[in-house]
Amino acid sequence: MSAPRVLVHVCCAPCAIVPVRALMAEGFAVTALFYNPNIHPVAEYARRRDAMAAYAKTLGLPLIVKDKGYDPAAWFRRVSFREDNRCFHCLHMRLEETSFIARAGGFSHFTSTLLYSRRQKHETIAAIGRDLGGEEMKSRFLYRDFRAGWAEGIEESKRLKMYRQDYCGCLFSDLERRKELLQG
């Protein structure tokens, strides 16, 4: 009997370390998906994509990169006039694409490395995933709380000298992170 296949949406290489290892240890055949139209600017997107590709190569981890899906305009349309609830719409967009690819690719499950971060809206991610991968779906959402490995993932990413970003990815999170630059 072959291992169950899981498609893991990855936001970046540092956040992939703990979830990928944990899922492999559980016996899943893991494939990573890099789909992040929220990341701004494009140079930041490329840095995160390339870091994930390098990490996947070291693990022999299959990686699907959706560069053609990098459409910041579509992302901005999804979150425009919803800035106060933008994370929900951003998360939904990325998990929706992940669930679609998982079903089309014959994966039994899908999940996200977003469940690793202590800074993400964990309950929202889980609820969206459950809605997209309901009982009748060919690919079910695989819920795991990877936050217990937060410190381990940070240390390992530093040891591996991975590119480590300092904001979630979107223009809004970058602005929130760097507000002090506007003081003065």
UniProtKB/TrEMBL annotation:
Enzyme Commission code: 1.17.99.6
This entry's Gene Ontology molecular function terms read:
4 iron, 4 sulfur cluster binding; epoxyqueuosine reductase activity; metal ion binding
Q: What does this protein do?
A: Catalyzes the conversion of epoxyqueuosine (oQ) to queuosine (Q), which is a hypermodified base found in the wobble positions of tRNA(Asp), tRNA(Asn), tRNA(His) and tRNA(Tyr).
Show the disulfide pairing: 168-170
Reaction catalysed by this chain? epoxyqueuosine(34) in tRNA + AH2 = queuosine(34) in tRNA + A + H2O
- Gene source species: Alkalidesulfovibrio alkalitolerans DSM 16529
One matching Pfam family: QueH
Q: Tell me, which GO biological process terms does this entry list? A: tRNA queuosine(34) biosynthetic process
- Residues that coordinate or bind [4Fe-4S] cluster: 11-12, 87, 90
Report what the protein is called: Epoxyqueuosine reductase QueH
Q: Which InterPro entries match?
A: QueH
Metabolic or biological pathway? tRNA modification; tRNA-queuosine biosynthesis
